[in-house]
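Worked Example 4.2. Consider the chain below.
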Amino acid sequence: MGLLVNGTWQEDVSRTKDGHFIRPTTRFRNFVTADGSPGPTGEDGFTAEAGRYHLYVSHACPWAHRATIFRSLKKLENAISVSVTAPLYGKTGWEFGPEKGGTRDEVNSKATLAEIYLIADPHYTGRVSVPVLWDKKRRTIVNNESSEIIRMLNSAFEAFTNVHSDYYPAELRAEIDRINDLVYPNVNNGVYRAGFATSQAAYEEAARAVFAAFDQLEGRLSRQRYLVGGQITEADWRLFTTLIRFDTVYYNHFKCNLCRVADYRNLWNYLRDLYAVPGVAETVSIDHIKRHYYGSQRQVNPTGIVPIGPLIDFTAPHDRGRFG
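Applying the procedure from the previous section yields the following C-alpha cells:
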C-alpha cells in the first residue's frame, strides 16, 4: 500500500507504531447542505442539487459500502451518480475500468482515484481512500469521511427523494453516538487493527477487543431488534458493513478467529435481518470483497490466493421479528 506525498505516489510507507495499526485521519471535510450553509466543518457553498455530486466507491471497502447503502436506502440514484473502483489495487491504489472489474470514471475520465485527489489538490499528501464525494460544479472533493458522507445522504437531499426515513433522528443521537463510539474503534477499525498489527501483543489486544464488543452487542440484541431500540438507525448500518465481511474475510484473513458472526445467535439473525432490507443486498459484492482483501493485501496474504469459501446464505430466514 502507498500514499501521495506532495502529489507524488510513494510506496511501502509504514502504517504501524510499536506494532499497532494507525488509521490516518481524512483530509476533505466540507458538507453538502440543503441551503449551501456550512456544515459542522468546512466552508459554505456546497448546496444540495440533483446531478451535481458524484460518489467514488469500492464495493470491497466497508467505509465506502456505508455510502452506497445510504444512496440506495434514500433512493438517491437519480440525484447522485457513482463510479466503482476495481476490486484489486493497481500500482497507485484504486483503479477504474470495466476490464478490471470496476466502472469507468464518467465524470473526470481518470484511470485512478489518485488522479481525482490530485485534481482537488495537486500537492495532496495522504491516503487515497474511498468513499469520495465529488462536486462536479466546483471540480473538487467535498468530503472523504464516510461517517460524514452518510449523514449528508441522510438529510441534505430530501428535496430530491420520496424517501424521508431519518437514520439519525435528533431524539436518538446521543444513544447512536454512544453505540458508534463502541463499534468504530473496537469493531469497524478493530478488525483492521488486528489484521495489520505487526506484533503479537498489538494483534491480541485488537482481536480480543473485537470479541469483547461482539459480546456487548450480542447482549444488547438479545433484548431489542436494533442497536438503538425498535427502529433502524445509522448505528446499525455502520455495524452492518463490518459484519457482512466478517466470516468471509476478517475471520481468516485478519485472524479474528475466536468466533464467527454465525456463532452468535442474535448478531447472526440481526445481520440477515438488515440484509433483507430492500435495496441493501444489491449493494453487497462478496466477489469484490474477497478479491480485494485476499488479492490486494499481500502483506497479509503474500500469495494473493482467493479462497473458494465460505458459502454463506444471508437470505436464510431470521428470527428478529420476535421483537415486533
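The chain has nine helices and eight strands. The chain has a mean pLDDT of 96. Compare this with Example 4.1 before moving on.
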